[in-house]
Design a protein that fits this description.
about 260 residues, alpha/beta, six-stranded parallel sheet, elongated, UDP-glycosyltransferase
């Protein structure tokens, strides 16, 4: 009987220790997906649900409402950041026109999402990790700068254009066509040259035009000039020490890995 009682005590202590260890390993994670389709959000939610099963808490900034709520997943919905609402019909819009309008709207949309009061209030909280949608959400790197925490890029599909170098997944036009071109098989020499030229031009556009305008420094200047509330770091604070090259880590370092879905595109 004495041995049985000791076993119960040992088992209870082991369960208690495991519970405490599990609790201490939990993290507060901020997911930033203000721009993207509902299918992109479904990809993020699948990751979030698996994280909360491991005792983490997740706050997701998104442009879409969920049909059901999870007790450990808090959603901050920013409808102003959903750029796809500006298109009457995606199927009746040419690829060239849609691409140009999307690029011209991304910086404004990201800043609008960042300026929402519920998002600004997140600067007052503590997080251990930021998981960011890799495309066009650079203004949310402000959380990384302000909170001094690591971040992970998340991509639900193929990494395109200027982001391939950033993600450490180089594009090989000799093996695959440029994603925004019509698929032609087998690949011809001319098709490969055209794809390579398109890739180089887009990478140069992202490197020297788009990305420099999406720094956290520029985002907060835009917020301040628009008279919107700024709760994060002051524009006077140096950003270059954290994000030295156009405010983005390039090439990708192990401290900011990429997570993508190999079956999504």
């Amino acid at each position: 009987m004495r041995l049985s009682g000791k076993i119960y005590v040992v088992v209870t202590m082991v369960i208690l220790i495991i519970s405490v260890i599990q609790e201490t390993r939990s993290a507060r994670i901020l997911m930033a997906q203000p721009i993207g389709t509902r299918s992109h959000k479904n990809f993020f939610m699948a990751i979030a649900e698996n994280l909360v099963q491991r005792n983490h808490t997740v706050t997701i900034v998104t442009g879409h409402h969920s049909s059901h709520q999870h007790p450990n997943i808090r959603e901050v919905v920013v409808l102003d950041g959903n750029i796809f609402n500006s298109f009457s019909s995606l199927f009746n819009t040419s690829v060239e026109r849609m691409t140009w309008e999307l690029y011209s709207s991304f910086i404004t949309s990201c800043n609008q999402a960042l300026s929402v009061k519920t998002v600004q209030d997140l600067f007052k909280e503590e997080f251990d990790l930021v998981m960011m949608y890799i495309y066009m959400t650079e203004c949310f790197l402000t959380f990384v700068h302000k909170l001094k925490i690591p971040f992970i890029y998340v991509c639900p599909n193929m990494v395109l254009g200027g982001y391939t170098d950033l993600a450490g997944t180089p594009f090989f036009p000799s093996l695959m066509p440029y994603p925004r071109d019509n698929l032609e098989y087998p690949l011809t020499f001319g098709g490969r040259m055209a794809g390579t030229l398109r890739y180089v031009l887009e990478a140069a556009f992202m490197e020297w035009f788009y990305l420099p305008g999406t720094c956290p420094f520029m985002s907060f200047l835009a917020l301040k000039q628009a008279g919107l509330p700024v709760v994060g770091p002051s524009p006077d604070e140096p950003v270059s020490g954290l994000l030295p090259h156009h405010c983005l880590p390039q090439p990708l370092s192990p401290a900011s890995p990429l997570f993508r879905c190999s079956e999504c595109g």
